[in-house]
Write a structure and sequence with these properties.
- It is a single chain.
- By secondary structure, the chain is α/β, with parallel strands linked by helices.
- It folds into 2 domains: 308 residues, Alkaline Phosphatase, subunit A, CATH 3.40.720; 84 residues, Arylsulfatase, C-terminal domain (2-Layer Sandwich), CATH 3.30.1120.
- It contains 13 helices and 17 strands.
- It has a 10-stranded mixed sheet with strand order 7-6-5-4-8-1-9-11-2-12, with helices on both faces. Strands 14-15-16-17 form a 4-stranded antiparallel sheet, covered by helices on one side. A 3-stranded mixed sheet has the order 10-3-13.
- A hairpin with a 2-residue loop joins strand 6 and strand 7.
- Helix 5 runs parallel beside helix 8.
- It is globular.
- The chain starts with 5 loop residues before the first strand and ends in a 7-residue tail after the last helix.
- The structure holds calcium ion.
- Calcium ion binds next to loops.
Length: 466
């Protein structure tokens, strides 16, 4: 067997850390994902650099910010000929590479996956039941539930490998679930009791002290579209009651949808055990970004607040990663690609902006490891209206800048947002309910964070204000 480990990278879509029991979830149980926490490491500060499906996926493959890999929004597709992608470099070094499931970086030439020996992807968002999948460029109409199909195809691919090969594998299993419209597998349709899910502390947030950008966003759960919630709210209820009703409806389907993803992790871990692969396979479980689970009265993501910014990240590699460990150092989604390259013993190209987090996973990060991170969400006209923003987060504070939009930016003549700032003290205010930007108590902190924002924008060469 090769001394370089196999890499099994399992990524779901919109699975917030606070819907995983090992992260302290109050709303569901994920025993199989929790196995990775028990047998490996759980990261408490893994962050995305742009909390949206398509851009985060591009950053994960390239190790670059959105403005560098040019995948900033849901409208963008990856230019697949880009040589700096983890799977291409790993393949070149002798890894057998595959991606199965959601790609969401464009499924027409020239944005089809490249650098994979085998690929089988959903077009766009894909369907929960009887999805079309594209296998190495050929459309296949499948029957069944998408999470189970992706799992089965992954197992089949592992089974199809030459049993005598010395080559390690790099397998990306990308689930569509639990992205909206939150449709669970039939076997989970009665899981959990709607009406009895605990509410987050900030469910009834009234956005006092926050920016206009926050007050006017369209991601409030009471405004969620009916295809996602499936039912109309009861008649005659108040606005507050509607938010509570929508929360229960949302979380019931969301948690049920997660359960097949947890089953999938169990199936794949069992496969590794049964085939003697567990000892020499790095297994990662993560999601493309976090998600608001009624926090601040919201669903969706895009904002820089903790629930959206934070990615779940669990990793197991016996002999290197200590079982049951917790790592608090920051790991960004742009660090994933160089981390894979490090395990694969591949030189990291200069164009990669992230840094290998291999030592973070073994709780042995160097003294000069990053203690702050840069975030940027670009203007999207698809889906929900969230005003574009950028900011910086260090271990205690977070500075966010909504740099303003005009009717030309949004295509809506009624929307003009002036530039606004927010500053949060995450130690005093972990729920980010009290914007202290401009407060006399934080003059010094504010200056430090503004300077850090400048430093990181220069470091990552993001000089554009819009
Ligand atoms: Ca997503």
């Amino acid at each position: 067997m090769s001394s370089r480990p196999n890499i099994l990278y399992i990524m779901s879509d919109d699975h917030a850390a606070h819907a995983i029991s090992s992260y302290g979830s109050q709303i569901n149980h994920t025993p199989n994902i929790d196995r990775l926490a028990e047998e490996g490491v759980r990261l408490t500060n893994a962050f995305c650099t742009n909390a949206l499906c398509t851009p985060s996926r591009a950053s994960i493959l390239t190790g670059q910010y959105s403005h560098v890999n040019e995948v900033k929004t849901l409208d963008d597709k990856i230019e697949s000929s880009r040589p700096i992608q983890s799977q291409k470099l790993l393949k070149k070094s002798g890894y057998e590479t595959a991606i199965i499931g959601k790609w969401h970086l464009g499924n027409d030439e020239p944005s089809n996956p490249q650098g994979f020996d085998y690929w089988n992807i959903l077009p766009g968002q894909g369907d929960y039941y009887d999805p079309m999948m594209i296998e190495n460029g050929v459309n296949q109409q499948l029957e069944g539930y998408v999470t189970d199909l992706i799992t089965d195809i992954a197992v089949d691919w592992l089974d199809s490998r030459d049993k005598d090969t010395e080559d390690p594998f790099f397998l990306m299993v990308h689930h569509k679930a639990p992205h909206s419209s939150w449709i669970p597998a039939k076997r989970h349709e009665n899981l959990g009791i709607e009406g009895e899910f605990p509410e987050p502390d900030t469910l009834m947030d009234d956005y006092d002290t926050r920016s206009e950008a926050v007050k006017m966003t369209s991601i409030r759960i009471e405004d969620t579209r009916k295809p996602n919630l499936k039912f109309d709210p009861p008649e005659g209820i108040t606005k507050d009651e509607k938010r509570k009703w929508a929360y229960q409806r949302y979380i019931t389907d969301y948690t049920r949808t997660i359960q097949a993803v947890d089953d999938s992790v169990g199936t794949l871990l069992d496969y590794l055990d049964e085939h003697g692969l567990s000892e020499n396979t790095l297994v990662v479980y993560t999601s493309d970004q976090g998600m608001f689970l009624g926090d601040h009265g919201w669903h969706d993501k895009r904002f820089m607040y903790e629930e959206s910014l934070r990615m779940p990240f669990l990793a197991r590699l016996p002999g290197e990663i200590e079982a049951g460990s917790i790592a608090t150092d920051m790991l960004l989604n742009i660090d994933f690609a160089p981390t894979f390259m490090d395990y694969a013993d591949v030189d990291v190209p200069n164009e990669v902006q992230g840094t290998s987090g291999r030592k973070v996973l073994s709780n042995d990060a160097p003294d000069d490891w990053q203690t702050s991170m840069y975030y940027r969400y670009w203007m999207n006209t698809i889906g929900h209206l969230v005003i574009p923003n950028y900011g910086v987060r260090n271990e205690r504070y977070k500075l966010i800048h909504y740099y303003g939009v005009t009717p030309e930016d949004t295509g809506d003549p009624s929307i003009t947002i002036e530039a606004e700032w927010e500053l949060y003290d995450l130690e005093q205010d972990p729920r980010e309910m009290n914007n202290v930007y401009g407060s006399a108590d934080y003059v010094k902190v504010q200056a430090i964070m503004l300077a850090e924002l400048d430093r990181l924008q220069a470091k990552y060469k993001d000089g554009t204000r819009h």
